[in-house]
What does this fold into?
Amino acid sequence: MSIYETAQDRTSYEVTVINFRADAFSMMSGFSGGSRLGKSLLIVLVAVVLIALAIGVAVQADECDGSRKKPCGENVYYSEEITGEIKIGGIGVIYDSFFTGSNCTKVTITGMVTIGKNEFKGCTSLLSVSALNSVVIKESAFEGCSSLESVTLTNTESVGDFAFAGCTSLSSITIPASVTSIGVRAFDGIQFYAPPSFEPLSQDAESLKGYEYRGGNGSLYRYGEAPASLPPAEKIDRTPVIAAAAVLAVMAAAMTASFMLKRKP
It folds into this structure.
Protein backbone atom coordinates (compact mmCIF):
# COMPACT_ATOMS: atom_id res chain seq x y z
CA MET A 1 0.00 0.00 0.00
CA SER A 2 1.39 3.38 -0.97
CA ILE A 3 0.99 6.22 1.50
CA TYR A 4 1.81 8.92 -1.04
CA GLU A 5 -0.89 11.08 -2.58
CA THR A 6 -0.91 14.02 -4.97
CA ALA A 7 -1.70 17.55 -3.82
CA GLN A 8 -4.77 17.65 -6.08
CA ASP A 9 -7.30 17.22 -3.26
CA ARG A 10 -5.74 19.92 -1.09
CA THR A 11 -5.42 22.32 -4.07
CA SER A 12 -9.09 21.81 -4.93
CA TYR A 13 -10.02 22.47 -1.30
CA GLU A 14 -8.05 25.74 -1.20
CA VAL A 15 -9.53 26.95 -4.53
CA THR A 16 -13.04 26.24 -3.20
CA VAL A 17 -12.36 28.30 -0.06
CA ILE A 18 -10.98 31.21 -2.11
CA ASN A 19 -14.00 31.16 -4.46
CA PHE A 20 -16.35 31.04 -1.46
CA ARG A 21 -14.70 34.09 0.09
CA ALA A 22 -14.83 35.97 -3.24
CA ASP A 23 -18.54 35.18 -3.67
CA ALA A 24 -19.24 36.28 -0.10
CA PHE A 25 -17.48 39.59 -0.67
CA SER A 26 -19.48 40.19 -3.85
CA MET A 27 -22.77 39.49 -2.06
CA MET A 28 -21.86 41.80 0.82
CA SER A 29 -21.05 44.61 -1.60
CA GLY A 30 -24.46 44.21 -3.19
CA PHE A 31 -26.32 44.19 0.11
CA SER A 32 -24.52 47.11 1.71
CA GLY A 33 -26.32 49.81 -0.27
CA GLY A 34 -29.75 48.22 -0.28
CA SER A 35 -32.81 48.09 1.93
CA ARG A 36 -32.99 47.26 5.60
CA LEU A 37 -33.85 43.66 4.60
CA GLY A 38 -30.70 43.54 2.52
CA LYS A 39 -28.69 44.81 5.47
CA SER A 40 -30.22 42.15 7.71
CA LEU A 41 -29.24 39.49 5.22
CA LEU A 42 -25.74 40.95 5.17
CA ILE A 43 -25.53 40.66 8.96
CA VAL A 44 -26.58 37.01 8.84
CA LEU A 45 -24.06 36.32 6.08
CA VAL A 46 -21.24 37.99 8.03
CA ALA A 47 -22.06 35.89 11.10
CA VAL A 48 -22.12 32.66 9.08
CA VAL A 49 -18.80 33.44 7.38
CA LEU A 50 -17.09 34.34 10.66
CA ILE A 51 -18.34 31.21 12.39
CA ALA A 52 -17.29 29.02 9.46
CA LEU A 53 -13.81 30.53 9.39
CA ALA A 54 -13.42 30.21 13.17
CA ILE A 55 -14.44 26.55 13.13
CA GLY A 56 -12.12 25.95 10.17
CA VAL A 57 -9.17 27.38 12.11
CA ALA A 58 -9.97 25.27 15.17
CA VAL A 59 -10.31 22.08 13.15
CA GLN A 60 -7.14 22.79 11.21
CA ALA A 61 -5.25 23.25 14.48
CA ASP A 62 -6.08 19.64 15.35
CA GLU A 63 -4.49 18.34 12.17
CA CYS A 64 -0.92 17.15 11.76
CA ASP A 65 1.12 20.26 11.02
CA GLY A 66 -1.80 21.99 9.35
CA SER A 67 -2.20 19.37 6.61
CA ARG A 68 -5.36 17.36 6.09
CA LYS A 69 -4.79 14.45 8.42
CA LYS A 70 -5.21 10.80 7.52
CA PRO A 71 -5.71 7.89 9.93
CA CYS A 72 -2.95 5.37 10.58
CA GLY A 73 -4.40 3.81 13.74
CA GLU A 74 -7.10 4.21 16.38
CA ASN A 75 -7.07 7.93 17.24
CA VAL A 76 -3.71 8.29 15.48
CA TYR A 77 -3.21 10.42 12.39
CA TYR A 78 -0.39 11.31 10.04
CA SER A 79 0.46 13.90 7.45
CA GLU A 80 3.14 13.72 4.81
CA GLU A 81 5.24 16.65 3.69
CA ILE A 82 6.60 17.18 0.19
CA THR A 83 10.07 16.77 1.70
CA GLY A 84 9.32 13.15 2.54
CA GLU A 85 8.77 13.77 6.24
CA ILE A 86 5.96 11.89 7.98
CA LYS A 87 4.39 13.58 11.01
CA ILE A 88 2.29 11.51 13.38
CA GLY A 89 0.07 12.71 16.21
CA GLY A 90 -2.73 11.51 18.44
CA ILE A 91 -3.11 9.11 21.34
CA GLY A 92 -3.23 5.42 20.47
CA VAL A 93 -1.56 2.62 18.54
CA ILE A 94 -0.34 2.82 14.95
CA TYR A 95 -1.51 -0.13 12.87
CA ASP A 96 1.21 -2.78 12.55
CA SER A 97 3.25 -2.54 9.33
CA PHE A 98 1.33 0.55 8.17
CA PHE A 99 4.44 2.34 6.88
CA THR A 100 6.52 -0.71 6.01
CA GLY A 101 8.71 -0.08 2.96
CA SER A 102 7.83 3.62 2.78
CA ASN A 103 10.20 6.04 1.00
CA CYS A 104 9.98 8.58 3.85
CA THR A 105 13.16 10.35 4.92
CA LYS A 106 12.12 11.63 8.35
CA VAL A 107 9.61 10.58 10.99
CA THR A 108 8.36 12.94 13.71
CA ILE A 109 5.95 11.56 16.31
CA THR A 110 4.50 14.02 18.83
CA GLY A 111 1.56 12.21 20.45
CA MET A 112 1.34 9.44 23.03
CA VAL A 113 1.67 6.84 20.31
CA THR A 114 2.62 3.17 20.38
CA ILE A 115 4.74 2.35 17.34
CA GLY A 116 3.46 -0.96 15.96
CA LYS A 117 5.28 -4.09 14.87
CA ASN A 118 7.31 -3.79 11.65
CA GLU A 119 6.11 -0.19 11.48
CA PHE A 120 8.94 1.25 9.39
CA LYS A 121 10.73 -2.00 8.66
CA GLY A 122 12.83 -1.83 5.52
CA CYS A 123 12.45 1.94 5.05
CA THR A 124 15.92 2.31 3.58
CA SER A 125 15.46 6.03 2.80
CA LEU A 126 14.70 6.93 6.41
CA LEU A 127 17.38 9.21 7.90
CA SER A 128 16.02 10.44 11.24
CA VAL A 129 13.39 9.61 13.84
CA SER A 130 12.08 11.85 16.61
CA ALA A 131 9.64 10.02 18.84
CA LEU A 132 8.33 12.31 21.58
CA ASN A 133 6.04 10.54 24.06
CA SER A 134 6.14 7.26 22.12
CA VAL A 135 5.89 5.08 25.20
CA VAL A 136 6.19 1.71 23.41
CA ILE A 137 8.23 0.75 20.35
CA LYS A 138 7.21 -2.74 19.29
CA GLU A 139 9.18 -5.53 17.64
CA SER A 140 11.12 -4.78 14.47
CA ALA A 141 9.62 -1.28 14.28
CA PHE A 142 12.70 0.14 12.51
CA GLU A 143 14.50 -3.05 11.58
CA GLY A 144 16.52 -2.82 8.39
CA CYS A 145 16.45 0.99 8.15
CA SER A 146 20.00 0.89 6.86
CA SER A 147 20.28 4.66 6.23
CA LEU A 148 18.93 5.73 9.62
CA GLU A 149 21.41 8.15 11.22
CA SER A 150 19.64 9.88 14.10
CA VAL A 151 17.11 8.71 16.69
CA THR A 152 15.70 10.80 19.54
CA LEU A 153 13.43 9.07 22.06
CA THR A 154 11.54 10.86 24.84
CA ASN A 155 9.39 9.25 27.56
CA THR A 156 9.86 5.86 25.92
CA GLU A 157 9.45 2.92 28.32
CA SER A 158 9.83 -0.15 26.14
CA VAL A 159 11.91 -0.99 23.05
CA GLY A 160 10.89 -4.28 21.45
CA ASP A 161 12.94 -7.14 20.04
CA PHE A 162 14.90 -6.22 16.90
CA ALA A 163 13.39 -2.70 17.05
CA PHE A 164 16.52 -1.09 15.55
CA ALA A 165 18.29 -4.18 14.26
CA GLY A 166 20.40 -3.56 11.18
CA CYS A 167 20.44 0.24 11.60
CA THR A 168 24.19 0.25 11.06
CA SER A 169 24.37 3.86 9.81
CA LEU A 170 23.21 5.13 13.19
CA SER A 171 25.47 7.96 14.39
CA SER A 172 23.33 9.45 17.16
CA ILE A 173 20.69 8.07 19.51
CA THR A 174 19.14 9.32 22.75
CA ILE A 175 17.84 6.65 25.11
CA PRO A 176 15.87 8.32 27.93
CA ALA A 177 15.99 7.36 31.60
CA SER A 178 12.32 6.35 31.34
CA VAL A 179 13.24 3.15 29.45
CA THR A 180 12.58 0.06 31.57
CA SER A 181 12.81 -2.66 28.95
CA ILE A 182 14.98 -3.29 25.88
CA GLY A 183 14.17 -6.44 23.93
CA VAL A 184 16.34 -9.17 22.49
CA ARG A 185 18.78 -7.90 19.85
CA ALA A 186 16.96 -4.57 19.76
CA PHE A 187 20.14 -2.93 18.42
CA ASP A 188 21.55 -5.91 16.55
CA GLY A 189 24.58 -4.84 14.52
CA ILE A 190 25.37 -1.91 16.85
CA GLN A 191 27.76 -1.88 19.80
CA PHE A 192 27.63 0.64 22.65
CA TYR A 193 30.63 1.81 24.68
CA ALA A 194 31.13 4.04 27.72
CA PRO A 195 34.09 5.64 29.48
CA PRO A 196 36.38 5.19 31.25
CA SER A 197 37.09 1.62 30.18
CA PHE A 198 35.19 1.76 26.87
CA GLU A 199 34.30 -1.87 27.28
CA PRO A 200 31.23 -2.96 25.28
CA LEU A 201 28.00 -2.33 27.19
CA SER A 202 25.29 -4.90 27.71
CA GLN A 203 22.28 -4.04 25.60
CA ASP A 204 19.76 -3.86 28.41
CA ALA A 205 17.81 -0.98 29.88
CA GLU A 206 19.97 -0.56 32.98
CA SER A 207 23.16 -0.29 30.94
CA LEU A 208 21.94 2.03 28.18
CA LYS A 209 19.18 4.26 29.52
CA GLY A 210 19.65 7.89 30.44
CA TYR A 211 22.31 8.78 27.88
CA GLU A 212 22.94 10.11 24.41
CA TYR A 213 25.30 8.08 22.21
CA ARG A 214 27.26 9.19 19.17
CA GLY A 215 29.60 7.49 16.76
CA GLY A 216 29.27 5.57 13.52
CA ASN A 217 30.05 2.40 11.60
CA GLY A 218 28.16 0.29 14.11
CA SER A 219 29.95 1.73 17.16
CA LEU A 220 28.27 4.27 19.46
CA TYR A 221 29.93 5.95 22.44
CA ARG A 222 28.29 7.50 25.48
CA TYR A 223 28.32 11.24 24.82
CA GLY A 224 26.30 12.79 27.64
CA GLU A 225 23.17 12.50 29.72
CA ALA A 226 19.84 12.36 27.95
CA PRO A 227 17.62 15.46 28.32
CA ALA A 228 14.93 15.32 30.96
CA SER A 229 11.70 13.71 29.86
CA LEU A 230 8.85 15.92 28.66
CA PRO A 231 5.46 16.03 30.42
CA PRO A 232 3.13 13.38 28.94
CA ALA A 233 0.97 14.61 26.09
CA GLU A 234 -2.72 15.04 26.80
CA LYS A 235 -5.67 14.84 24.49
CA ILE A 236 -6.87 18.35 23.71
CA ASP A 237 -10.58 19.10 23.72
CA ARG A 238 -11.26 21.54 20.91
CA THR A 239 -14.90 22.18 21.94
CA PRO A 240 -14.14 25.25 24.10
CA VAL A 241 -12.10 26.74 21.26
CA ILE A 242 -14.94 26.33 18.78
CA ALA A 243 -17.50 27.65 21.29
CA ALA A 244 -15.38 30.72 22.01
CA ALA A 245 -14.94 31.35 18.28
CA ALA A 246 -18.72 31.14 17.79
CA VAL A 247 -19.33 33.64 20.61
CA LEU A 248 -16.82 36.07 19.11
CA ALA A 249 -18.48 35.68 15.70
CA VAL A 250 -21.92 36.51 17.16
CA MET A 251 -20.48 39.55 18.94
CA ALA A 252 -18.92 40.74 15.70
CA ALA A 253 -22.22 40.29 13.88
CA ALA A 254 -24.07 42.26 16.58
CA MET A 255 -21.59 45.13 16.32
CA THR A 256 -21.99 45.11 12.54
CA ALA A 257 -25.79 45.20 12.89
CA SER A 258 -25.66 48.11 15.33
CA PHE A 259 -23.42 50.10 13.00
CA MET A 260 -25.38 49.46 9.82
CA LEU A 261 -28.85 50.01 11.27
CA LYS A 262 -27.81 53.40 12.59
CA ARG A 263 -26.86 54.53 9.11
CA LYS A 264 -29.45 56.41 7.10
CA PRO A 265 -31.08 54.32 4.35
Observations:
- Residues 69-225 form one domain.
- Residues 1-11, 13-18, 57-67, 232-238 have pLDDT under 50 and may be disordered.
- The chain has two domains: 8-62+236-262, 69-225.
- Residues 36-61 form the longest helix (26 residues).
